[in-house]
Specification:
Pfam families: FliL (PF03748). The protein folds into two domains: about 1-70; about 80-180, Tetrahydropterin Synthase, Chain A. The chain is built from four helices and three strands. The chain has helices at about 1-55, 110-120, 120-130, 140-165, and strands at about 80-90, 95-105, 170-180. The protein has a three-stranded antiparallel beta sheet.
Length: about 180
């Protein structure tokens, strides 16, 4: 009898261990499925993002749209300082005043640098004439400074257009502006 009880006890223990092992196997299968789902979502999301960031495919020859112009890639900015600074005198309300400004030109074409250096006397003369021709009280305001900056930009573009055949300058920047 004691042997039967031991045999029954061993069978019960074996059944409990089998249940535990089956539960462990079930847990491993569930984790594997969850991992596969996460990997699938990750791959799908990556492919979606890559498709959205890719430029549109170029149409094959003979298809419509082949004649569309290709956008130019914007070149890196080159900041070219005008040295030495520009200093002009003003008479305002019977007193001598002056303006000292550092000017930097924003260009995107390396070839324009050589043209600017070659024509620096003409550029400095143009800047002196425009800045010196302003009314002192008007350039004390932000609007007056912006108007003067636009006038300098237009005049310099016109000068370079006449000399090298292209405007060459994208912006005129006042990097220092002192009025006394």
């Amino acid at each position: 009898m004691a042997e039967e009880k031991d045999a029954e006890k061993d069978e019960k223990d074996g059944a409990e261990e089998g249940a535990k092992k089956g539960g462990g196997l079930k847990r491993i299968i569930i984790l594997a499925v969850v991992c596969l789902v996460i990997v699938g979502i990750s791959v799908g999301g990556t492919l979606t993002v890559l498709k959205m960031t890719q430029p549109p495919a170029a149409p094959a020859e003979g298809e419509e749209g082949a004649a569309e112009p290709v956008e130019e890639v914007k070149k890196d900015a080159i900041y070219f300082p005008i040295k030495p600074e520009i200093i002009v005198n003003y008479t305002a309300r019977g007193r001598q005043r002056y303006l000292r400004t550092d000017i930097t030109l924003l260009i995107r074409d390396v070839d324009v640098i050589a043209a600017i250096e070659t024509h620096m006397p003409m550029i400095r003369n143009t800047l002196n004439m425009i800045i010196g021709g302003q009314v002192y009280q008007e350039i004390q305001t932000a609007e007056g400074k912006e108007l003067m900056r636009q006038q300098c930009l237009q005049a310099l573009r016109k000068n370079l257009e006449a000399e090298i055949g292209k405007p060459g300058i994208e912006e005129v920047l006042f990097t220092s502006f002192v009025m006394q």
